[in-house]
């Protein structure tokens, strides 16, 4: 197959060269054929710019908020919400984001990306005792886990300093939770 392609290319180039060849010393070399225009030859286009010397590296991580929220969002019984939120909260605590933040920081340190994109970077606030069931006169304000700050602290402990370029706030929801520790928001 290779020799066939080579032969075809040579034949095509030979045909193209003989079909366009005019002897520049012959008088017909200066006669314009029908449809041709008299033009000045143009200089060749400039060469393309050199490739960049540095490429940007990007890392993206879904840090996982720590639990599946589906049971809360699909329940048909509002009375079940405090128990379901309590179960989700227990999973978040057991998921141990401070340890996971350290592991993510190690991964960032080993690859040293220029940009890091993070998904599900949650901030959990609690209020104890809870006020949700009595009209929620005051929102939960005590920060229990701030995933972004925990990760930035882990990075700084390794001598890596990243700044926050952008944050998208998707939701801020307060719900009552019941666990063995009692009722809280």
Q: Main beta sheet, described?
A: 2 strands, parallel
N-to-C terminal Cα separation, in Å? Answer: 73 Å
* Beta-strand fraction estimate: 5-15%
Mean model confidence by pLDDT: 82
Question: What is the approximate shape?
Answer: elongated
> Helical content, roughly?
25-40%
The H/E string reads HEHHHEEEHEE
- Radius of gyration, CA atoms, in whole angstroms: 34 Å
Enumerate the strands of the largest sheet in spatial order, edge to edge or round the barrel.
1-2
Spans with pLDDT under 50 lasting ≥5 residues? 1-19
Number of contiguous helices: 5
- DSSP summary, beta strand count: 6
Structural class: alpha+beta
Explain what you see.
By secondary structure, the chain is an alpha+beta fold. The protein has a domain at 58-184. Helices cover 35% and strands 14% of the residues. A two-stranded parallel sheet has the order 1-2. A two-stranded antiparallel ribbon has the order 3-4. The protein has a two-stranded antiparallel ribbon with strand order 5-6. α4 crosses α5. The longest helix has 19 residues, at 2-20. It is elongated. Mean pLDDT is 82; it is low at 1-19.
Keywords:
5 helices, alpha+beta, two-stranded antiparallel ribbon, single chain
How would you summarize the topology of this molecule?
Layout: H1 2-20, E1 58-62, H2 70-74, H3 81-95, H4 97-111, E2 115-119, E3 123-126, E4 142-146, H5 147-157, E5 177-179, E6 182-184
Parallel strand pairs: 1-2
Antiparallel strand pairs: 3-4, 5-6
């Amino acid at each position: 197959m290779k020799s066939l392609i080579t032969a075809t290319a040579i034949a095509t180039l030979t045909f193209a060269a003989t079909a366009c060849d005019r002897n520049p010393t012959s008088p017909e070399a200066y006669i314009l054929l029908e449809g041709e225009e008299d033009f000045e030859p143009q200089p060749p286009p400039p060469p393309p710019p050199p490739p960049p010397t540095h490429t940007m590296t990007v890392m993206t991580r879904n840090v996982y908020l720590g639990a599946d929220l589906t049971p809360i969002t699909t329940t048909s019984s509002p009375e079940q919400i405090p128990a379901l939120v309590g179960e989700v909260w227990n999973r978040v605590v057991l998921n141990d984001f401070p340890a996971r933040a350290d592991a993510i920081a190690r991964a960032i340190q080993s690859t040293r990306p220029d940009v890091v994109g993070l998904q599900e970077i949650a901030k959990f606030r609690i209020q104890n005792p809870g006020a949700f069931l009595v009209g929620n006169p005051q929102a939960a304000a005590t920060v229990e886990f701030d995933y972004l700050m925990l990760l930035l602290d882990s990075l700084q402990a390794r001598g890596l300093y990243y700044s926050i370029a952008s944050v998208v706030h998707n939701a801020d929801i307060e719900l009552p939770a019941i666990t063995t520790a009692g009722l809280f928001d």
